[in-house]
Amino acid sequence: MCHLRRRRKNYSIAECGSIAEWGGGVRARRSLRRVSRWADGRFSDALQLFLCDDRGARGDMPEQSQVGRYQIREIIGRGAMGVVYLAYDPQIGRRVALKTVRPLEGARPEEIAESKARFLREAQSAGKLLHPNIVTIFDVFEDRGVLYIAMEYVEGVLLDRFCSPKTLLPVEKTLMLVGQGLAALHYAHRNGIVHRDIKPSNLMVVNGETLKVMDFGVARQPGASLTQTGMVVGTPHYMSPEQIEGKLLDGRSDVFSMGVVLYELLTGERPFQGEEISTVIYRILHSDPVPAREINPALPEYLGAVLQRALAKNVEDRFPTAKSFGEALQRYAEPRAARSPREELPSSGLRHGDYLPPPPSSGTRRRREHFNAPWRAIGLIALIVVLAGAAWLARGFLQQRDSGRGTGMVEGPSHQILPRVLTVVTDPPGAKLFVDGQPARAVLAPGAGQRPRILEARLGCLSARTELTADTPSPIRLKLAPGPYQIPVASTPAGAQVIVDGKDTGLTTPAQLPRQDCTPFTLALDLKGWERKEVRVDPSREASVDLTLKKVPPTGTLRVESASDKIQVYEGDRLLGSSGQDLELTAGEHDLTFVDPVLRGSRGQKVNVPGGGKVRIRVAPFETGRVFLYGKPINDGKVYVDGRFLEELPLNGTTPLAVGRHRFQVVSPSGKRVSFSWTLVPGDQSRVVDFDKGDVESP
After folding, report:
1. What percent of the chain is modeled with pLDDT above 70?
2. pLDDT tens digit string along 512-533?
């Protein structure tokens, strides 16, 4: 992929790879120079960097052929902030990848120092990790003012090759590779390292079977704070919501990023897309991706649920660890592992291990490039003319864009400078934020040339609004004030009648309830077949109301029959009614108590009431005894039984009481109290209350 690079008012084609990769050597360079002369200089800006690409590669080579103890062989790659060389370690006798920092063009000294600090951090964090699925760091050193990091040299295929609809891998192969990546991340997380930049181009498949996690270049220990001014470190399409918001990260951020990678490998599309970075960020923060099975119907339903959890906006809703994510994938893969390759791939004709062929040997690659060099050079000429034309046509458009470092792209196609995240401070605090009427977890300043946006802060009945532009300073301070507003009122199920302070509003849920001030009010929701629910609402604290109603359970009828019409029916402390009445109860078992208030008798019984039916029970009469009670030295006072007044002393057996245990209290005219328990039996029984001793005795 080629890109236009801007230097002042000139535009050139960049990131097209070296000439050797397009057909090799002197013939290609001569052909390109002829194209430049033929173009009569009209496209010289566009061709400049490409013509110099091979020489530029040499320009990136260190002047010396050896740095530290390593012998430099060739350039094998360039990243957003560095160059990678193939080098040889003569002490151990092995090839290594040697990476160095390439400061951004025009960067200030403090930015260069920051880049070096980030480079050292890469070595500090990744150097701790020794895992078969992580590229190993061997050494870090400085030579003549340049920092180098020596790491394991691996040859393989980047996973981004398999992220388009035409190149998707079989599901089982994808799950195997992603599972290895998750195992590597779990190991890193256990060692306190968060990768922070998981994406397909940082995942390499070696020998068709082994995944290697590369470039812990933005890895960091939790709690460290080192970001480049004006940007958030990471690749926007794969960043977690909390990473965009600049929050402290843990391993669940990498879980989200790996979920994005898995979604892309299974569907051929990114879950969060957009023409502008701000659109991508907004969708990561607020939008759910299209279900993967809608894009690729061949995917099993189980993977949809796994992806939904991995891509949860709230970290608490995601897989808690990379290991648990991998185990969820493994639960799908294991039952299918027993199937034969023919069952798995009926039409591919490929054998296990053939999905990802290892790259050709260097000798084979050189012979093929030498044979095809003339034709590839001709094709390259045609490609350059088209790209140069595009650059020439785009010059006028691109020159109108702001050239500041706050927009556009950092070197490399995927690391882009993100829009500024604005801090919003409200008085009182705790307000919810909305941008253009949509809830906003993070407030981003519009880019240069973009239309202004409306920021609104709401806290119940209080609100404030302001306009956002590319120049809006941070923090934004908003003073909230009362005013006409609407409170969203919802219920589950919907359709409930909305009643405010006992008056019907004429609204049914969901509804926008208009209010004029911050006065608290009582809100009730009423829906036939559901229990009425009533709450007190303080608009200064609550921005919306969402209530779940309980369904009215089915009922049945209970009829209690007794020789006495005085029997009372209780459930707990609640009086349901009396004997001889039809009592409506919810269907099911009830623990009832039958009370005779005259005889002071009670009896418990469990009753099962059928829904829509009627049950009858008969309460047998209470057996009674006669009580004789006297007082001394005076035979006078009031008698209370089970907390209720019975009669005055003396008791001469004229008032029967139900047999069983009762609590008596006798109060003399002078206020002396004597309390005691008395278990009554059928027949006659007597006691004497001695007020002087405060006791009771047999006569």
Report:
1. 73
2. 999 888 889 999 999 998 999 9
- Give the residue-averaged pLDDT of 156-175: 93
Residue 278 has φ and ψ, to the nearest 5°, of -60, -35
Domain of residue 491: give its range: 485-541
Q: What is the pLDDT of residue 418?
A: 52
Cis status, amide bond into 241, omega within 30 of 0: no
Average pLDDT, stretch 218-241? 54
For residues 621-640, give the mean pLDDT. 95
Is the domain of 435 the same as that of 530? no
Distances (CA, A) of 664 to 28, 63, 675: 115, 109, 6
**CA gap 185, 255 in Å, rounded:** 8
In a domain, 501, yes or no: yes
306, with CB counted inside 10 A (0-12, 13-18, 19+), is: buried
User: If residue 624 lies in a helix (H) or strand (E), which one and from where to where?
Assistant: strand 624-632
With respect to residue 10, please indicate whether it lies within any of the assigned structural domains.
no
The DSSP 8-state label assigned to residue 218 in this structure reads T
Q: Give the active site residues.
A: 197
CATH code where residue 570 lies: 2.60.40
- Final residue belonging to a domain, choices 280, 299, 333: 333
pLDDT, residue 188, reads 92
User: Mean per-residue pLDDT for 558-582?
Assistant: 91
Examine the domain organization and report whether 160 and 295 are in the same domain.
yes
Indicate whether 515 and 472 sit together in one domain: no
CA 585, CA 553: separation in Å to the nearest integer? Answer: 10
Residue 299 pLDDT greater than 80, yes or no: yes
